[in-house]
């Protein structure tokens, strides 16, 4: 099992110092990759509007760590431009770039490209071919500003001959199936999904890989898990409950905004405060027991093995969900102890 670090929420306090410090630790201690997201127009994740920009900085600050986007919201961008930016990251890192593509879930993000919302899924899946062709040096035919059909190629040429490519898959089984059909790796998370549902969707993914001539042993299945490892499970629970509950509340606010934009009058805020608190407590208990790396190296081993048995090959440890940054950095030693047990 590989272990990586992933960032998703972030805070304005120290901006990017925490990310850099964590990346340097991961780089020096055998972790596989660092993942940064694309988020827009909200405090929740707002530090990460462009993963290629931050990825370029991380490439220069590390020596061996894979530098990955988790994820690029592809329908907001031209796949040609995405290929160019990440080829720069690949060159700066000397061949350590990787890319996950997401269809996008927040209508507000699409203020950048409103035309991309309606067919966002198809745009994302179609871009896989374009990205691969450009990355591997094949000519791509496009229309220029005068309406002429022209041939283009990618510059700078990337270091890696093939682009490590993931599809971000969560609730929809169709996306897992598409990832299998296209032969993409999978980046997933337990969002609106039980462990049992994840197992079913990964089984569908592996079955589809085989049906389309792809080797299931050659892909990477990356699972994002909230992570904080200490020496005492009860102390960990006490430490993570306040920030994790705030994190869940912020996440539900984002989902609430999405629901209200799609169906005015519906949303999380329509339920009472006491019901919201109960929902958050229920979600926390579920994550703490079965859906996160929250505890000690000993107590979290069973969680790692459960997901390993499903076919997960990499855990992306989400560490920026509100725990004091110094405590998180100190806890990386205990996370590294867990990582070494499964290296």
TrEMBL record:
<dbReference type="InterPro" id="IPR011251">
    <property type="entry name" value="Luciferase-like_dom"/>
</dbReference>
<dbReference type="GO" id="GO:0016705">
    <property type="term" value="F:oxidoreductase activity, acting on paired donors, with incorporation or reduction of molecular oxygen"/>
</dbReference>
<dbReference type="Pfam" id="PF00296">
    <property type="entry name" value="Bac_luciferase"/>
</dbReference>
<dbReference type="InterPro" id="IPR050766">
    <property type="entry name" value="Bact_Lucif_Oxidored"/>
</dbReference>
<feature type="domain" description="Luciferase-like">
    <location>
        <begin position="13"/>
        <end position="313"/>
    </location>
</feature>
<dbReference type="GO" id="GO:0005829">
    <property type="term" value="C:cytosol"/>
</dbReference>
<protein>
    <submittedName>
        <fullName>Amino acid adenylation protein</fullName>
    </submittedName>
</protein>
<dbReference type="InterPro" id="IPR024011">
    <property type="entry name" value="Biosynth_lucif-like_mOase_dom"/>
</dbReference>
<dbReference type="InterPro" id="IPR036661">
    <property type="entry name" value="Luciferase-like_sf"/>
</dbReference>
């Amino acid at each position: 099992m590989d272990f990586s670090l992933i960032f998703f929420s972030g805070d304005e306090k120290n901006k990017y110092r925490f990310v850099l410090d964590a990346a340097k630790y991961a780089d020096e201690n055998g972790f596989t990759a660092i993942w940064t997201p694309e988020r827009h127009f909200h405090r929740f994740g707002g530090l990460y509007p462009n993963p290629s920009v931050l990825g370029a900085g991380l490439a220069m600050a590390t020596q061996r760590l894979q530098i990955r986007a988790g994820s690029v919201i592809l329908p907001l961008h031209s796949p040609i431009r995405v290929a160019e930016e990440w080829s720069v990251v690949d060159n700066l890192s000397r061949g350590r770039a990787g890319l996950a593509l997401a269809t996008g879930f927040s209508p507000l993000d699409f203020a950048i490209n409103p035309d991309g919302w309606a067919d966002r899924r198809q745009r994302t899946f179609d871009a896989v071919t374009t990205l691969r062709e450009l990355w591997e040096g094949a000519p791509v035919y496009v229309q220029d500003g005068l309406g002429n059909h022209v041939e283009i190629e990618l510059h700078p040429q990337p270091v890696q001959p093939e682009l490590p490519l993931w599809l971000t898959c969560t609730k929809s089984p169709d996306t897992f199936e598409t990832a299998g059909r296209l032969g993409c790796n999978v980046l997933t998370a337990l969002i609106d999904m039980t462990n049992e549902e994840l197992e079913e969707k990964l089984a569908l993914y592996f079955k589809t890989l085989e049906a389309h001539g792809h080797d299931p042993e050659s892909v990477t299945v990356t699972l994002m898990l909230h992570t904080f490892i200490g020496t005492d499970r009860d102390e960990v629970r006490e430490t993570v409950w306040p920030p994790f509950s705030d994190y869940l509340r912020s996440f539900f606010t984002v989902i609430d905004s999405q629901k209200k934009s799609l169906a005015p009058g519906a949303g999380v805020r329509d339920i009472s405060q006491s019901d919201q608190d109960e929902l958050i407590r229920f979600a926390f208990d579920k994550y703490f027991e079965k859906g996160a790396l929250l505890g000690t190296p000993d107590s979290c081993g069973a969680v790692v093995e459960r997901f390993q048995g499903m076919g997960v090959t990499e855990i992306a440890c989400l560490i920026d969900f509100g725990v004091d940054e110094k405590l998180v950095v100190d806890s990386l030693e205990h996370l590294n102890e867990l990582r070494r047990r499964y290296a």
